[in-house]
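hey can u run this one w/ LP7C6HRI bound, need the structure tokens asap thx
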Amino acid sequence: MYIYSATDIRAWDEYTILHEPITSIDLMERASQACAEWLQQYQQQTTTGFVIFCGKGNNGGDGLAIARLLAESDHPVTVYILEFGHKGTEDFQTNLARLHGSKAVIKFIPAEENIPALTAGDIIIDALLGSGLNRPLEGLTAKVVKHINQSGLEVIAIDIPSGLMVDSSSIGNTVITAQHTLSFQCYKPAFLVAENESFVGHLHILDIGLHPNFPLEHPAANRWINQALVQSIIKPRNKFAHKGTYGHAAIIAGSQGMMGAATLSAKACLRSGAGKLTTHIPAVGYTIMQIAVPEAMTYTAGKEYIELAVDLGKYDAIGAGPGWAQHDTHKALLESIFQQTTKALILDADALNTMAQHQQLLERLPRHTIITPHPKEFERLFGKSANDFDRIQLALKKAAHFKIIIVLKGRYTLVATPDGLAYFNSTGNPGMATGGSGDVLTGIITGLAAQGYTPSEAAIAGVFLHGLAGDLAAAYTSQESLIASDLVEYLGDAFHQLVL
Ligand SMILES: NC(=O)C1=CN([C@@H]2O[C@H](COP(=O)(O)OP(=O)(O)OC[C@H]3O[C@@H](n4cnc5c(N)ncnc54)[C@H](O)[C@@H]3O)[C@@H](O)[C@H]2O)[C@H](O)CC1
Ligand SMILES: [K+]
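ok here u go:
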């Protein structure tokens, strides 16, 4: 599934109108019906009515159609139309004429003194501006939005909270703060960044039946990692398989006091289907590893932390970094790993911090290495970004420059590939913001890469399975109680859900 820009969404609209074919006003009706149905399901016993704020573009047109549909179902509806000093789009006008025949109360806001007082119990619907927004809100529009935000009432945004840019940062701008956003057909870039979370609230993507052929003809660089995509990657296991079929992985991890990172990575690697696993750990962790993960072979190098890595050429995938802590020897260790790596390499945690301190290491990264930084680690590696959109662009730039895959962890984890594609993961929950969660991800991606999945396949499927295991675990134990070991426990169920 693609994540389209505002321009692409408009093109999809036009494509649907031309090829279904359907008139623009009927398409608006379909979108509005989907919203009205959602709202009727959602309204509470305490809801006294709907107050709908409309602009004069097609977002406002949606608002007017929603008003009519709700009024037809006997809900008290008041509509406020913000005077922009023009007549409004054709579909806006058609819907205004249709609304005049209904029981909805229609009022206009030509000036600040006409901004209405809002009463508790009403649900506010924001249909002021949608994907046609091309500049920050100002003047009367900004005042109306601030008034709505200050009311403390429940706000439901249609398509996108008014004032929020679809494709670029809205930091510092006046934007509707919605509790729910009802958007159409596909995810938009604005919904995927942490800086917009407080505006968007709970997101609901409503299917309005835009033409299915458009995505086939218009691939986009931004993509959504969902079950269908991951199902197309993960292959059923071969009936004649033996452990050699699924590769030999190595996990180079752990130090005194951080052997948990190593055992979590190791278990996750094995639970992701790697045929064999050898852990490279310091001597202090030998017994811990042998007892915690009896399925793994263990090679010790260094006393309290890993000092060297040998004989790595035989591995199909190597995961390195979890629980290393910071030691001077790690620069040489990384150089040695880079030299010996012949296939996939996954770097996380202290391996990334070492690279951040010795930036020249970045230039020596083997091609198609996967790095899995969280935003702070990313910043240490590549510098600060002014906003989340810039950070995504920087990740794509660095992925292309170093020919690596960058997994930038977050609510919608980004997988940036060297060929300029940005995949956003759909699974996961805040319960996974807990120690060891990243170590599990390193193990999963290493385990998948060892089986022969390409680095981008391993990264995409890995982040999805990791998040899905988190969702299944949270459903069982709650987000609060979720610990990283649960992610390992629920990986099996996550694979089950893929129904191979
Ligand atoms: N497939 C779909 O997603 C469908 C979407 N629909 C709805 O249509 C809107 C987009 O409509 P459009 O008329 O293009 O844009 P707006 O309603 O957002 O209004 C644009 C209008 O406003 C002017 N403008 C832009 N920025 C500002 C500003 N800061 N202040 C004031 N005015 C501004 C701009 O110049 C235009 O004149 C989409 O969001 C959906 O809600 C359809 O209903 C069907 C399918
Ligand atoms: K809106």
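The CA atoms of residues 476 and 482 lie 9 Å apart. anyway lmk if its weird
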